[in-house]
Known about the structure:
The chain contains 13 helices and 14 strands. The chain is of the alpha/beta class.
Amino acid sequence: MRRSIVHEGAGNLSYEIREIVAVARKIRDMGLPITWENIGDPIEKGETVAPWISEILHGLLDNPKSWGYCDTAGVIETREFLASKVNERENGIAITPDDILFFNGVGDAVARVYGFLKREARILGPSPAYSTHSSAEAAHSGYGHLTYQLDPYNGWMPNLDDIRNKVKYNDSIAGILLLTPDNPTGAVYPREFLQEFVKIAQEYDLFMISDEIYSHIVYEGYPRLHMSQWIEDVPALAMRGISKEYPWPGSRCGWLEILNRGKDENFATYVNSLLAAKRLEVCSTTLPQMSIPHVFGDERYPDHLKRRAAIFNDRADELQTAFAGLDCVVANKPGGAFYQTVMFKEGVLKSHQTLPIENAAIKTHIEGLVKGVSPDKRFVYYLMGATGIVVVPLTGFQCAHEGFRLTLLETNPGKRAWIFKTLRESIQTYVNS
Length: 433
């Protein structure tokens, strides 16, 4: 074409979690059954929605309003409900319904939040990084995503010195992103770490973003804190949704809690641009929004959340037992969400290591794929070809550490035990080959 039409950041749009699917489907078509451990879809892994939640949704289908447009910012009754829930949080800041803005899932919110930032304004995010955030931030700027380190030898806690130094010496950084519980590590940050984030933001006049999609999947003994309870006077955006909670990933229903909008005029103008952009598409999905006050407000919902968190906690314990004594990896138990990150210790992975693959065609295919890839992606490909288990390489999360992420979503106890056992045996065989 006479002019390039490709955005400068197009090369940064990478999503390893789904990109590996094409490889897995090819292997499946060659005769090997596939076990999908790459993506956080509870429904795909066998979880069913509680009957009482399903009944609420069936009832809403009889309401004609559920079939139509809603207010641009979201169903007003739902926004009023959510604002009231924020205002009920202990020691939190107050918001109004106008501080709730709905999107077609948190992924849509992420795209808008980064897409409407001034190009020169950068967001510093964690590494390992969740690909939706890291790709969107890098694409909006046209440069690689800026990251701070999470420490695998300290429970994947943020390296606060790294954050402070990067903010201090890079004045393009306008905001800081965190995820708690984190994806991919499952780390849950204690209040003292969150307060340090606030101090840095206050000192350097930054805003903050917190992805709280897993905020109601926190294991017993870990802090259950929403951003509104620790953000103090820093302008901020908290991202929430129902995809992991009901769970209803197909609902595409997420929202922002806009915190301290009035503390900074520039931040307020930016937030107004997000709402203006929403007006161009009329509204977000109506039916899922309408369900929120009915589901969140139901007396059974707290027990629903507690039960699910306990299930994932137990599965995390199962994996800890399965991996006990496996000294070549670091496999910190998560404190929330439903993921497990396994990191190979430095120097463990070598270029000659392999796993035995019985199917000759699959073996040839895998051997062609592993040329020139990162060491952990090489392991992931061999694992897939040998066992059919699909995990995501840790370097695919904007991370220098080598390893992989799997889920804790498998509902079949026997299959889950097989997955954990096979992973351990495959690691041992690969490392010793």
